[in-house]
Amino acid sequence: MRPGSDTPKSLSLEQLLRRDDVWRGRVRRLATRPVVDTGHGELNAELLQGGWPLGALIEVCQPRFQGEWQLFLPALLAIHPGLILLLNPPAEPFSQALIQAGVDLDRLVVVKAAKKSLFIPSFTELARTAACGAMLAWQPEEPLGYTDLRKCLLAASEGAGLYAVFRPSAARRQSSPAPLRLLSQRVAAGLAITLFKQKGLLRQTQPKPLILPLPAPWRALPGHAALDGAAPGAGSDRAGKILAHPRGRP
Question: Which of 3, 29, 32, 2 is nearest to 16 (CA)?
Fold first, then answer.
């Protein structure tokens, strides 16, 4: 430092560690980022900022079509104003169930983009618009690569909404720029959520799944509970269809 400067000649280690741009591994201290309550207290406690990050990309890996609405519905109901965009959903929204869940259908917009050549520009343009309060996007027919996801991440960082992309569970083994990645699986007790990547948190042990209990309408009926194990994905598909109709049905 120059003689006479008011700045200390040296900073202590503790002073350096107080800086927001210094990463402290397992220590949960990051620059403040806007979040929205997940609606699940145990999940909030495991997230670095205490909720779903806004203006970021959340990647959900899961087998087939299952707990998307159960996982994000509380946050979607908490976000006002702004549109709720469904990009390339695997099923048509079931309006009656959405109304019963409290979703304002006037805010719901479905965008079909089954091919990656349509999905990427749709995601990036929609994420940047100020009218987008939240967007749930399902991976198109062609797998998304690192560069594709980075484009989505950059677009999300320019917005202020909630942005989630759903990918097959096998994508967990692939590298991704998404700052928050999780595995979602239907189990007998509810929805098992494993947070296997959080930017700013260094994990030295295998993360343990959180079990989010399902509300009554989502649980298998007692007489049909055995069907969950009889056919692969039977239980998970049933849960998702409570809020959606498969394509091709009226």
Answer: 29
Q: CA 211, CA 45: separation in Å to the nearest integer?
A: 13
pLDDT classification of 11: cutoffs 50, 70, 90: low
**Residue 70 φ/ψ, nearest 5 degrees:** -60, -35
DSSP per-residue string spanning 192-215? EEEEEEETT----SPPPPEEEPPP
Q: Provide the pLDDT for residue 8.
A: 45
CA distances to 56, 82, 247 from 34, rounded to whole Å, are 10, 16, 35
- How many whole angstroms separate alpha carbon 139 and alpha carbon 157? 19
Residue range 9-16: mean pLDDT, rounded: 55
Rg of the Cα atoms in the chain: 20
The reported pTM is 0.77
Closest CA to 184 of 224, 147, 138: 138
